[in-house]
Amino acid sequence: MKIISADDVxxxxxxxxxxxxxxDAFKGGVHAPPRxxxxxxxxxxxxxxxxxxxxxxxxxxxxxxxxxxxxxxGRGLPAVMAxxxxxxxxxxxxxxxxxxxxxxxxxxxxxxALAARHLAPPEPDTLLMVGAxxxxxxxxxxxxSVRPYRHILAWNRNVEGAERLAQSLRDEGxxxxxxxxxxxxxxxxxxxxxxxxxxxxxxxxxxxxLKPGTHIDLVGAFTPHMRESDDDCVQRxxxxxxxxxGALHEGGDLVQPISAGLIERSHVRAExxxxxxxxxxxxxxxxxxxxxxxxxxxxxxxxxxxxxxERCGI
Length: 314
Hints:
The chain has 11 helices and 14 strands. It has 314 residues and is an alpha/beta fold. An 8-stranded parallel beta sheet has the order 9-8-7-10-11-14-12-13, sandwiched between helices. The mean pLDDT is 95.
């Protein structure tokens, strides 16, 4: 069994190829049961979460094992740890153990890129990245792989985080000019595409500030109690999800307004499978506001792991 490090994952993947791999996975042929979610009681601190996410196709089986340990910040460790075990479908033999944290960053951003292929405006000028955590630079790179941008704005509750993100993007030599924004409210109306990856429990993106034609990519708010967009934003937008099963049960940006009776389940027009199969045309007009809510799916882990294995000669 080959050990695939975070650096190996970076070496193996690029966003155009990974986005294509996700599109193929969403077209069919992948079995992805609901993930197992277990709360681990911890008398000495915050409870932990153990996640098991299985998926398989005609070539591989994969299981992602992830833990969420809120107290790890005090230990100088990431809160989320993950590994992906890739197995041969015919024999069940483990063939690779892959750094799951890095794989998750890549596949999550690639899902946003896949949605943007169908939903982002065709000629955007400005990309706004809300949040400056580990996922943020991957999301920016993913969006840049789908559309060209002239400007990138970075906002974070801590402005130093936004400045570090903007500097790192400038250091990568992108054609788009990256700068930090001090006020989120001041720049939302400037953005053609807004990508959010935060742990916010209060809405950040306000519908009243959106200009016509904006595409909103919501990646944070992965529990029903979290929120990145307000009710007006959800009500103004045409809504899409990565999977109905995940986003309608775990994504607070949709769970909360549906529970409040502000929107109905039918307002969510399509999931990624329907977009890639042509069952829904995606963006219908230049002035349409589109909103994509993702919570992640194990078939994305399998698609990424299989591509890594192929490129690593496994």
